[in-house]
Specification:
30% of the residues lie in helices and 31% in strands. It contains 7 helices and 13 strands. Strands 1, 2, 3, 4, 5, 6, 7, 8, 9, 10, 11, 12 and 13 form a 13-stranded mixed beta sheet that branches. Strand 3 and strand 4 form a beta hairpin. The protein is globular.
Amino acid sequence: MTITYRFYECSKDLQRQIDFWIKATNELPFAWKPTLSPNQFIEQQQFHPKSRCFAFDGDQIIGYMSFTGSSEFVSLGYPWVLSGYEGEVQDELYNRIYGFAVSEAFGAKMFAQRFRSDWTQQIEYFLSKGFNVTRRSTLLVSNLNKTFETQHNVEVNEGFDFDIWQTMVKKYEDTSAEQFAMMREYYGSVDFDFSIVFDGEGYFGVTIRQDTGYAEILAVACHPTTHKFSNMVGIVMKECKKRDVKFISISAAHVPLKDSLKRLGFTEQTEDVMMMKKSEPTE
């Protein structure tokens, strides 16, 4: 069959993108839950149909690539394809999406994307396109094959309330208005499954990828005392286990002391890898 390509046409393409991403990343270690960014970008003034491209072999979708952002900063997606379509199809998708992003019509100046350190194929592809690794951050991971007795007054809510998180952070950290504005935008793109309020002493936001049973503790605000922190994480784990989670991660940057979660089985298992690239002049 002949490979064909087309740009975004209608809202159904958003679901095609999400479904394909879930399929393409199902077996990649520590692949996160899809974010709300694509849906949000569609509603923004900067959106253009040429920001997402799909590849087909006959009627079967075999790949796609997209980006979100503004001319100042673009989150450039990876060209995801089915096994057997690597190489030429990926490069065609990349050239169409990156080419439009740097064109005068959009004028992107800076690109970024993140992967897990285990995703060597994706990292190597972006390195070949001129990206550089700009930051690595450790993730601690634990399997939920056992539970721990914990005591704390908690309130479990669906979703995530940024204002509660911000109020809690202000009690324990010195954070600027600019940093809060940045975090509001970031957390606003995260599809949180639930959050837990710990009796005025902590607030955690969690996402769950249901097809793989992987949960991430993405938002943390709490008293810095190690004992209280580990108890809170233990309660988050118990709530995750109720929701059929198999394993859970948290950024080491959120952990007060390196070994404070050791009793809960957390170990360093992977890294978040940030990659960036400045735009190149087009001919």
